[in-house]
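Continuing from yesterday's entry. The apo prediction looked reasonable, so today I'm repeating it with magnesium ion included to see how the binding region is handled. Same sequence as before; SMILES copied from the compound registry.
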Amino acid sequence: MSTVEDLEVTAISPVVRPELIVAGARGTHDHSDFLLVRVSTSDGTTGLGEVSATLQWSGEDAGTAEYLIKKALAPAILGRPLVPVADLERRMDEATAGAPFTKAGISTALWDAYARTLGVPLAVALGGPLRTEVPVKCSLSGSGQRLRHVCQSAFEAGFRSYKLKIGFDPEDDARRLAEARKLVGEDTFLGLDANGGYRPAAAARAIELMRDQNPAFLEQPVAPGDLAGMRELRGRGLSIVADESVFGTDDLVSVIRAEAADAVSLYVGKAAGPGRVVAMAQLASAFGLDVVLGSNGELGIGAAAQLHAACAAPGLSGRIPSDIIGAHYYERDILKTPLNSDGRTVRLGDAPGLGVEVADEIAAGFRSVR
Ligand SMILES: [Mg+2]
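Holo prediction written out below.
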């Protein structure tokens, strides 16, 4: 069996298309400081990964990721057998606490190399595919002219399902929801994401004010650690989705025990890898939670990892579209060929691994961490 021979990285700071900048209660995402990862094995197979981290989410970015990879994560896996990937993930956990988005970048590259070795799509190596098409939605933020512009741009990009960023002031947010509802249409799928921005009383008030405008769900109404507060808000006519409350499996168990949510938003980054997303989806669905794949503004490699994980994830919601929008988000993608997405769905291909290649000028930037 082949071993992990080398690990290369390249930092990248792409700019989000101005019309799709997401301004939520957790900050404004207008550019990304991401790190791309490439592993190579002793039999000449390579795998790609992406550290799609932001400081506001986990205290990670391209700089911290490169430091941790050089200092601890690469030494933990270089020279080791590629299979089983789960053993390499365990070694990374032993070498460094936390840093899930950084570990996810390496894990994705390892899984990509493993699936390429088998000659199958990553979704197959992960135990799927249970589906080959994943419905997606686009985030909307702002109000007035700005909101109108975002709605129009998203519609022109092909999107037909949306979520509005709220979590500021309930009265003002309710007015913005009314605006958004008018713009996207009465029967269009439109959810809400508060990014943990409300105090519990404000969240209850927001639900009262917004319920009759038919929002499809309410994501992370209160602070990530306030599971009792989340529990309180269930059963008021809106599905409660846990996002920031759930990074890894231990968080998911806490949410299940506290009966804090109706659905959970899993990220390849928060979970520290695509294999763990699938395991968490299994656990969530066994306890009756709907599963969606959430986004941290992934580029093409990260979006491909989301897609394959979503296609292998048990219990993926048939009601709430996922957030796999990497193909649309940035001025320029990093892939040779973009993911197969029309804005309504993203479709799985049959190429081995993630099924993506980076553009030549991006590939030229990779440097070994050895
Ligand atoms: Mg969210």
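Comparison notes:
- The mean pLDDT is 96.
- The pocket of magnesium ion is lined by residues 193, 195, 219-220, 243, 265, 294 (CB under 6 Å).
Will overlay with the apo model tomorrow.
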